[in-house]
Amino acid sequence: MTDTEIKNRIESLARLDDAAWESLCKCCGVCCMLKHSRHTGTYYTSVACNNLNLGTRRCAVYSTRLNNRVFCARVDLSVVLRTGLLPDSCGYIEYIYGPAPIQIRPDFSKVIHERDMSHATPVSQMESGNSHPRHTTPGPWNHIIDDSLGWRTRAMELRDKYADFGRDILRRIARTTQK
Ligand code: SF4
Ligand code: SF4
């Protein structure tokens, strides 16, 4: 993708109506997994929001998910443009930057719900392959998924590169909606 193509894609994403926006979601369920932020980046865990149906990977409360669930955030353009929140293979990321080099397909048979976290066996540091200090208290950090799955690959650099351009668009949208 050329520089111009990527900028045009960001611009066109900003203009999509709700139906077209929703149609880009691949319903992979990946963004409904708990994330753990550290200074080295955002890491996905094998712990899913309690509202995610682990069989269908669909949200059980989608139409009302933003009413009373602090954890859930609408995936909008600002989320798409922020580095680290969505995987390369997210439909919105692919729309802007092209097909991901690796499709993220977690083994959902190993995914647990947030409510079951304290009973589940943590992913071992060796198995997870990450270099985080081991936490002694239970939490999503005990379930960080092996980053070799490619959560954060190509699009990270690209997302950094176009962050300023994306912010300009978001400011422009905010000004338009205030009028
Ligand atoms: S409430 Fe939000 S995070 Fe939870 S399953 Fe639904 S969309 Fe995903
Ligand atoms: S990661 Fe992207 S494609 Fe997958 S469910 Fe979330 S918004 Fe949809």
Q: What share of residues are in beta strands?
A: 5-15%
Overall shape: globular
The helix fraction, in percent, is: 25-40%
Low-confidence stretches: 124-133
Mean pLDDT: 80
Q: Spatial order of the strands in the main sheet?
A: 1-2-3
What are the key terms here?
alpha+beta; 179 residues; 3-stranded mixed beta sheet; 33% helix; binds iron/sulfur cluster
Secondary-structure blueprint of this entry?
Elements: H1 3-15, H2 18-23, E1 33-38, E2 41-48, H3 77-81, H4 91-97, E3 112-113, H5 125-128, H6 154-161, H7 163-178
Parallel strand pairs: 2-3
Antiparallel strand pairs: 1-2
One iron/sulfur cluster binds next to loops.
Description:
- This protein is α+β, with helices and mostly antiparallel strands and 179 residues long.
- It has one domain.
- The chain contains 7 helices and 3 strands.
- The chain has a 3-stranded mixed beta sheet, with no helix packed on it.
- Strand 1 and strand 2 form a beta hairpin.
- Helix 1 packs across helix 4.
- The chain starts with a helix and ends with a helix.
- The model is unreliable at 124-133 (pLDDT under 50).
- The structure holds iron/sulfur cluster (2 copies).
- One iron/sulfur cluster binds next to helix 4.
- One iron/sulfur cluster (SF4) is lined by residues 32, 49, 51-52, 59, 61, 65, 69, 72.
